[in-house]
Specification:
This protein has about 475 residues and is α/β, with parallel strands linked by helices. It folds into 3 domains: about 70 residues, PAS domain (Beta-Lactamase); about 160 residues, Heat Shock Protein 90; about 130 residues, Response regulator (Rossmann fold, 3-Layer(aba) Sandwich). Helices cover about 45% and strands about 20% of the residues. Helix 6 crosses helix 7.
Length: about 475
């Protein structure tokens, strides 16, 4: 335990192998023992190799015929428990940071909704040849990028679930490689080797970005003196499946994403633990040990598989297998969504949001499309308006997070007044927790902030068309 031989220990005093704080803690111990008192202390021994070893020291006096003759000590190694205590504190810290990150993302999404919404209002009134059109498009693009950042915060805070859709993996790799080129040290060269006819996968683009980013940052840490980061994509063949039965590739088609580096590599023992939460080789000041654990969880949520191959001084390679889907090509899918025309209507909508700029924006945009709009700044006001106008209100757009009566309770009360009420949930959080409860309880749909105006209009059209069977 202490790495000393028996002979060495018998020639040393107890305080000779303690750290400074432990010596001060035990300075009054001889007097206590002489007085017949037993004590327990958590102290730190210094091993022969210089490592710190936390122990529980139990000391009790030896008294014979009322006379103090000496002391007996029992030393218990508590290093494992101290390590678990550190990990628990780290987990609590990360949970607190996650709650903070989720709250920041929610508030930031509300701000972005105002920026994005009014930008789209201005764009509607500008022809493409207008000098301001390009500037407004730049603002719109920046707001979308900021929205992507808040999505990453929500993923970290575990307030976001996978938003799977047909995805061109090559496009995502190209996007994240540009970010990595600005993030990683300049002596690290990024190389791409992408399959030209890559099949489409069902994926969440934000989470794919996070997977590549986390592995890329780990690779950079392993290449402190520079090196190469290689990102490859490819279609998995039948031979690949047969030659790697341990992967459990039980679907017809897979696409692989391979990320490798020329860094210091890892030994076999380290590789056994890399996907465990809190496991890190970087030290407490450089990493949380959650990066690869998060990667593993995200790959699993995509019904995929991940393996790691590495040798000391020979770099590391992560290979990820994602299932192929038979669906509309990713490019066409994106164009279809973008190409939807703005929906116009003559129905009546109740808009409920505690943010005054968002109420004003929503009223202006919906009214411009022909809708009659009531607005409410909280759940209580929404119930009052609906109670007085329920015969003419066709749809409610309801924010979830509001002071006073929140969206969840408001929805329950609205359902009591009209079990068939049509409600679209909007929130700066993602579709989890209370949002899921509301949807399960009968909400007609969900739209996350910040959203393009075309998205909310298409959702309105979808729900109202279903209600009236109109075409």
């Amino acid at each position: 335990m202490l790495e000393y031989s028996e002979e060495e220990l018998t020639s040393m005093r107890n305080k000779d192998i303690m750290d400074g704080k432990s010596r001060l803690l035990l300075i009054d111990e001889p007097a206590k023992l002489a007085g017949g008192k037993s004590s327990k202390y958590e102290i730190v021994y210094i091993t022969k190799s210089g490592k710190k070893l936390p122990v529980l020291l139990s000391v009790s006096p030896i008294i014979i015929n009322g006379v103090y003759k000496g002391a007996r000590s029992v030393i218990t190694d508590i290093s494992y428990f101290k390590e678990m205590e550190k990990k628990l504190l780290q987990a609590q810290k990360m949970e607190a940071i996650g709650v903070l990150a989720g709250g920041i993302a929610h508030d930031f999404n509300n701000i972005l909704q105002t920026v994005l919404g009014y930008t789209q209002v201005l764009l509607q009134n500008k022809p493409s040849h207008d000098p301001d059109f390009i500037n407004l498009k730049a603002i719109e693009e920046s707001a979308q990028k900021a929205s992507s950042l808040t999505k990453q915060l929500l993923v970290f805070a575990r307030k976001s679930e996978s938003n799977l859709k047909p995805t061109d993996l090559n496009r995502e790799v190209n996007k994240i490689s540009e970010i990595l080129s600005r993030t990683l040290p300049k002596m690290i060269k990024i190389e791409l080797n992408l399959e030209e006819k890559l099949k489409t996968v069902n994926a969440d683009s934000v989470q794919i970005e996070q997977i590549i980013m986390n592995i890329g940052l780990n690779a950079a840490y392993a290449m402190s003196d520079g090196g190469r980061l290689i990102i490859e994509t490819g279609n998995v063949t039948s031979y690949d499946k047969i030659s790697n039965p341990e992967l459990g590739l039980n679907r017809e088609g897979y696409v692989l994403l391979r990320i490798s580096d020329t860094g210091i590599g890892m030994d076999e023992e380290t590789q056994k633990h890399i996907f465990e939460p809190f496991f890190t080789t970087k030290g407490a000041d450089c990493g949380t040990g959650l990066g690869l654990a998060m990667v593993y969880g995200l790959v699993e949520s995509h019904k995929g598989h991940i393996i790691c191959c590495s040798k000391p001084d020979h770099g590391t390679m992560f290979t990820i297998y994602l299932p192929v889907i038979e669906a509309m090509p990713a490019e066409n899918y994106a164009k279809k969504i973008e190409g939807n025309k703005l929906h116009c209507g003559n129905e009546t909508i109740l808009l409920v949001d505690d943010e005054e700029p968002l109420r004003r924006l929503g009223y202006e945009l919906l009214n411009k499309q022909g809708f009659t709009v009531f607005v409410a700044e909280n759940g209580e006001e929404a119930l009052e308006i609906y109670r007085e106008n329920k015969k003419i209100i066709d749809l409610v757009i309801l924010d979830v997070s509001m002071p006073g009566m929140g969206g969840y309770l408001c929805f329950k009360e609205l359902r009591k007044m009209n079990p068939n009420i049509k409600v679209i949930i909007v929130t700066g959080y993602s579709d989890n927790g209370k949002v899921k409860e509301i949807i399960k309880s009968g909400a007609a749909g969900f739209v996350g902030k910040p959203y393009r105006f075309t998205k909310i209009l298409n959702k309105i059209q979808e729900i109202l068309d279903t209600k009236t069977n109109r075409k």
